[in-house]
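[Q] Does anyone have a clean structure-token version of this?
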Amino acid sequence: MAAVRPVVERLVVERTHERRPVDERDTYGAAFLQVGDLWRHDETVRAFVCAPRFASAAATLLGVEGVRLYHDQALFKEPRGGHTPWHQDQYYWPLDTTDTITMWMPLAEVTEEVGSMVFVTGSHLLGDLGAGHISDRSQAAIDRLIEERGLTTDTHGSLEAGDATFHAGWTLHSASPNPSGAMRPVMTVIYVADGARVAEPTGPAQEYDRMAWLGGREPGEPVDSDQNPLLWPPVEG
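[A] Here you go.
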């Protein structure tokens, strides 16, 4: 983390498009600074994102033989930053598989005051629950669903730098606001099972992802562009 953190912090500052004060943004904008594809801009970050030991853990959790990179993403929750509403990541992904998983790793200590993500237990098995876009609407809809179905939530609370959680693509999750005066720097890596194919996008959000993270591959084509290298098992040579 001592090697990776300053590089990621520099890239986030250089590459973020968000320059407004937190209190002038909507709920989604106030949740975090969001910058992806960092692995293609620095060798230190490339080594982190493509690390075989992380990819091996992802493959084991998914129960598949191999995984490819879908994309990386820095999620920096600023001081006094807002909450991250309930959502399901898979909603955004034009993929023909649910064998997807995200590693969420803080680059600095996440204190109990800030807290790590909150998950709805077992939600990865329930498919699309209609959360939709990250928004106040998704927060209200999932709050109602949790109450109506009697679902339970769980969180790991504080985390040390270099700890990690992994969550499957349909897992409902959210994050608390950052009431502290310090940045909450987190790096995420999203993995997809090797052999997955591009699905027909269901809307503008998935079409954006197809063009941004899948090398422009067309529906029906394999997820194997230069943007989606095989991370596990390691490629010989």
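[Q] Thanks! Anything notable?
[A] The chain has a mean pLDDT of 95.
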